[in-house]
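Internal tracking record. Fields below are filled automatically when a chain is submitted to the structure queue. Please do not edit lines marked as system-generated. If the sequence contains nonstandard residues, flag them in the REMARKS field before resubmitting.
Queue: standard
Priority: normal
Entity type: single polypeptide chain
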Amino acid sequence: MRRHLKAQRYAGKMSATLILNSRLAGRACDLRHTAGAVTALAFHDQPGFVPLRPQKGDEILRGGMITPPLAEPHVHLDAALLGPLAPNKSGTLREGIRNWSRLRPSLTAQDILERARRTVAMYAEWGCLFVRTHVDTNSELAVGTLLTLRKELAERGITLQVVAFPQEGILRAPGRRQAWERAVIMGCDAVGAIPHFERTTDEGWDSVRLAFDLAATHGRMVDLHCDETDDPSCRNLELVCAETLDRGWAGRVIAGHCTALHSYDNGYAAKVIELVAASGVQVVCNPLDNAVLQGRYDGYPRRRGLTRVDELWDAGASVGLGHDSVMDPWYRLGTANPMDAAYMAVHLCQLTQEDQLRRTVRTLWSDNHQCFGGPPEIIRGAKTALLWWKQDDEIELLRLRPKPRVLWQNAGATRPPR
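SYSTEM-GENERATED OUTPUT FOLLOWS
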């Protein structure tokens, strides 16, 4: 797997790639990518446009579309590819957690490393070169292993961030809070929590405040699993927004899942959505997992269970789309193709207007980059990887979900998080 990643990274060193009459951010352009950088860029609509001419050794691509690399804001690499070992018979979140907790003690560093490398290589094949993983802080072995993987991947042009995630809560049992705090001290990029899984509502709220305090102490971002339930009485998201507003942390906080928002009374939902937009909290919807985990306690009609993406958009909030699970104890399927998450979202959230379809796809290379400091700029002189798609329309990307051509950055280290 390491050889596979290395071969991909250096594939572009033999020659430049010249892309002619392609589309970049809706504009026709010619672009040359050489040694991991944009060495020439000419937009057809700019005054005095002169087409780029092929040079000896150029690989030539024509038409299609150019975009930044895709980003994955929410996955669990420590549990990836373990699904066949622990089938989720009930299909519930809680059984997934129980199955994972049984597997966790048997993990080895080599196993975690190999599965993480395989999964990241799958992401890279789909053009996803920025990955944020949650790691269960009940396994210091898993935390340390994924932290060491960051440097290896950075040398191959892939950015990895690690979130200290207490899968079974921090207040439910002795020692969990201490393990969670150690994981942050070890160097995790963000502080996680799972307030809806704590024993009581009050303890859930306490865990949110503790997460913000820990992030403040160590200068970290915050990324919570928040209200991943169908229970409309689960109301942690408003507290997350209040803490973010009070601390002035807009852009530093992610609330993942937020599926209870789907079940809220519409009046209360409107209040919370307004708070999300005002606070600058990003909501990350995870359509693949929540399509199968939510509604399990319903008869019929059965709730779809995804957060209110369209209403969040309408309020001006930032929404990311995560794949979440790649063949793990919660979701047996998964391809590591972020486009699959977008495809599921447009169906279950009914995002079928033309502008909604396009926005859903663009999220993968725009809002999904928020935790990484924003998407790489594709401008002349920029040292960056980029993607070339044969298709020139976002809706066709969503319909076909193809593999792009990855033009790699061979500059070694990648941008650090904010």
